[in-house]
């Protein structure tokens, strides 16, 4: 279990590094992250409990992305795909992996605080004229949660 936790933290650091340096992440990181998260969360709890939480979380994320899509459709006065225009596919996949990591209440709290941090950070970056993707800011609270939970 300790090995999985260390691998999880190392992979989050790798994702953050790739994102800061290249503004993209390697494709292999998302499936590996999913496997690690899946393994960590299925050890010591019933599989049905894990899957029910995951399905609820995926529904929450689907609702979240639907609201964001509707917002941008109203804002732009046309319905276009927001993927790779407003939000990258890597951001969506990274956030989707979070559905396997948390129970629903923790996911809502985590995403709320992550998005608040993103808003403040983005406001600062706008004033500095820099653009930064979402997953870069979400990976940092993931590190804090991992450290706090003893991962």
Can you tell me about this structure?
- This protein has 151 residues and is mainly α.
- The chain is 76% helix and 0% strand.
- It has one domain.
- The protein has helices spanning 2-22, 29-42, 47-76, 89-98, 104-128, 134-148.
- Helix 1 packs antiparallel against helix 2 (29-42) and helix 5 crosses helix 6 (134-148).
Q: Treating each run of at least 4 consecutive H or I residues as one helix, how many helices?
A: 6
Oligomer: single chain
**How many extended strands?**
0
Question: How would the global form be characterised?
Answer: globular
Measured as a percent range, the helix fraction is over 70%
* Main sheet makeup: none
- Give the SSE order as H and E letters: HHHHHH
Q: Average pLDDT across residues? A: 83
List keywords for this structure.
151 residues, mainly alpha, 6 helices
Short description:
76% of the residues lie in helices and 0% in strands. By secondary structure, it is an all-alpha fold. The N and C termini lie close together (9 Å).
What is the topology?
Elements: H1 2-22, H2 29-42, H3 47-76, H4 89-98, H5 104-128, H6 134-148
Helix pairs in contact: 1-2, 1-6, 2-4, 5-6
């Amino acid at each position: 279990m300790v090995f999985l936790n260390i691998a999880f933290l190392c992979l989050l650091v790798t994702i953050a590094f790739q994102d800061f340096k290249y503004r993209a992440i390697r494709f292999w990181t998302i499936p590996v992250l999913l496997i690690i998260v899946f393994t960590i969360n299925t050890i010591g709890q019933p599989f049905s409990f894990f899957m029910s939480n995951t399905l609820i979380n995926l529904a929450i994320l689907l609702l979240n992305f639907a609201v964001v899509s509707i917002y941008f459709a109203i804002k732009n006065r046309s319905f276009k795909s927001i993927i790779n225009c407003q939000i990258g596919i890597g951001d969506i996949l990274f956030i989707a992996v979070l559905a396997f990591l948390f129970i629903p209440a923790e996911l809502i709290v985590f995403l709320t605080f992550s998005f608040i941090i993103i808003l403040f950070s983005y406001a600062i970056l706008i004033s500095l004229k820099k653009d930064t993707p979402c997953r870069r800011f979400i990976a940092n609270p993931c590190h804090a949660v991992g450290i706090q939970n003893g991962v």
